[in-house]
Structures are given as C-alpha cells and as structure tokens.
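Query structure, 285 tokens:
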C-alpha cells in the first residue's frame, strides 16, 4: 500500500503536521508520495514527489490535509484516476474532511487492515456553450449576479424542455454531496450522499412560488443567464470563478467521474449530520 499526500499550503501549521506524519509512516514502513506543491515546505524535503494531478495514478489512497475546500480541490484532481480519498481535517466544519489529526494514525492502521468502506459520490460537469470551457465539480455549480445588487434572470430547461425563468440573485445546481453546502444555506434540502439526484435551488428568488427542485442525476440542465448590467458570474465548488457575458448558456450534467471517499466503520452520514448541525441527542424517558 502506498499513500499519496496533498495538503493546504496556506495553513501555517501544515508543514509540522505533515513532517510528523511522514516520520511516523517511515517508522511503520508505509510507503508514501507527496504532491510536489507541498514538498518544498517539508523537512527534510522528500526524495520523490509528483504534481497533484498525477498523484492519484501512482498511489493506492490519497490523504487530503486541510478543510473541505482542500478536499474539493483534491477531488477534482484525483477523481479521474479513481483513487480513494481520505479527508484529514485541519480546518473548521469538516463535512468532507472529517478525520481529526488525533485519530489519523489509528485510521491509517485501519487502512492497512482493510477496516473501511469506499463510498462513491457523483460529480458535475459545467460547460459554457460555444466555448471549450468545461469545469468539474463535486459540490455545486452556482450562477449568480456577481457584484451587482440587482437580480438576474435564469432561463432554465431540463433535457431540452423549458422549466422556468427564475428571477433571483442566482441559481445553485448541487449534487447530494453539495446539499449540505451553499444549497443548504439557501434553504435547499439535504440529500443522502448515495442518492442519484441533482438539486436546482434559486438564491433569494423574487417569486414565492420558486422552490428548490430535485431531479434525476442523469438529467442535463441548461441555464441561460441574463443581467441588465452586462455580466454574470459562474462558480464551481466555490473555487473556480469566471465572469461571463449576459446571455451565456451553461450546460450542467453528471460527470463521467466519481469521487471515491474512504469511510471508516464507526462513521456514518447521519452521525455526521447530528454532530455538524448540532441536532439534539436522544430524549431519555
């Protein structure tokens, strides 16, 4: 078994955490390979490293050190290789990167002993019609008004059939994984990650009849966005942002890739919800 290591280089304590972890791997005689983006920060510098986009094809598991943002970036790089990802939480909320550093060594021993399951998560492709621009995302695709304090119009069709023209601040198209992200903040439903569905959720719609809609995961969604101010904004996973001219059409569909996430035997989606959303404990009679 060989482990790949990716980390958020923007966090000051990351080098110390990775250095200590690599020392432990060396003692345990567990092979590893680091992403070249983090190699210069480590002491001693690893003898071998590779770009993050190539890491998945050279290891059995990829460890993503950071928060959920780091995990999303890792997923986009690693998903095409099909390599499972382990999220190590060095940040805050931790829906995706749910393993704390205090449990890391135990979890690696679980990997070695094959005490884990792999869960596959659907991803989305967003394509801008008339261009070669194509974006891969695990959480969501968001089309919004950008820096202007006025609503935009989002003419939306599913499989070529007209659905509605939303007058809103924007529109979120989210996967089940992304249902606990921005879409949840905008009043969208929570979907179990293994469901094959896509959420269409208007942001601050100007009509009370506009409500979130869940469609099948195999549906192709086309959105033509219009702004009186000449431009709109496209964001994928909240990280890849592009300003587009008014009238642009964005086509969103299920990607051929899946993010494969490692889960351990004592973790579950429902337990995670109870913890992260601070739902009440069972009432004792």
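Result returned for the query:
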């Amino acid at each position: 078994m060989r482990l790949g290591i990716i980390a958020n280089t923007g966090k000051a304590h990351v080098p110390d955490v990775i250095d200590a972890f690599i020392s432990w791997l060396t003692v345990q005689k567990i092979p590893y390979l680091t992403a070249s983006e983090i190699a210069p920060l480590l002491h001693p510098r690893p003898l071998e490293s590779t770009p993050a986009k190539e890491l998945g094809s050279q290891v059995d598991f990829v460890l993503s050190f950071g928060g959920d943002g780091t995990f999303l970036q890792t997923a986009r790089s690693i998903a095409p290789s099909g390599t499972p990802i382990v999220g190590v939480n060095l940040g805050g909320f931790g829906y995706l990167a749910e393993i704390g550093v205090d449990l890391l060594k135990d979890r690696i021993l679980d990997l070695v002993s094959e005490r884990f399951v792999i869960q596959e998560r659907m991803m989305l492709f967003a394509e801008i019609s008339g261009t070669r621009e194509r974006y891969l995302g695990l959480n969501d695709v968001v089309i919004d008004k950008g820096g202007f304090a006025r609503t935009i119009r989002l003419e939306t069709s599913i499989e070529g059939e007209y659905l509605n023209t939303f007058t809103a601040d924007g529109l979120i198209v989210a996967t089940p994984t992304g249902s606990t992200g921005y879409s949840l903040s905008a009043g969208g439903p929570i979907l179990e990650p293994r469901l094959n569905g896509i959420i269409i959720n208007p942001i601050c719609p100007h009509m009370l009849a506009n409500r979130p809609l869940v469609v099948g995961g195999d549906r192709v969604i086309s959105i033509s966005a219009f702004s009186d101010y000449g431009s709109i904004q496209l964001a994928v996973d909240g990280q890849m942002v592009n300003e587009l001219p008014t009238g642009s059409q964005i086509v969103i569909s299920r990607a051929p890739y899946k993010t494969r996430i490692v889960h351990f035997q004592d973790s579950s989606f429902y337990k995670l919800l109870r913890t992260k959303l601070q739902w009440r404990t069972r009432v004792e009679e």
